[in-house]
Give the backbone structure.
Amino acid sequence: MIELQEDNLQSVVAENATVLVQYSAGWCGNCRIMKPKFKKLARENEGAVFVMVDAEKFPASRQLAKVDNLPTFAAFSNGELVNQVQTNKFEVLKEMVDAVTTD
């Protein structure tokens, strides 16, 4: 799993076939609750790249999915945004991940 250190999600998305992103912020309690669940899914889906993005620090990366609420999870496939959910429920997140990681 990658924790973005600069505002370069665009290049990560361009360089990888399947990218799943958790947009969060330090003050967001639900983001902190979902982070270990997102990490668990990252370990279970080695064919995809999982990325944590601090939505407050990286506005260009945030704009890729037009994030307006946290936590937001986004799925990119072949450079395109294909799914996005705003949730604090593991089942909803897992459904989205399964949809883009299974053939």
Observations:
- The first strand starts at residue 2 and ends at 3.
- Residues 2-101 form a domain with the Glutaredoxin fold (CATH 3.40.30.10).
- The helical segments are 9-15, 29-44, 59-63, 90-101.
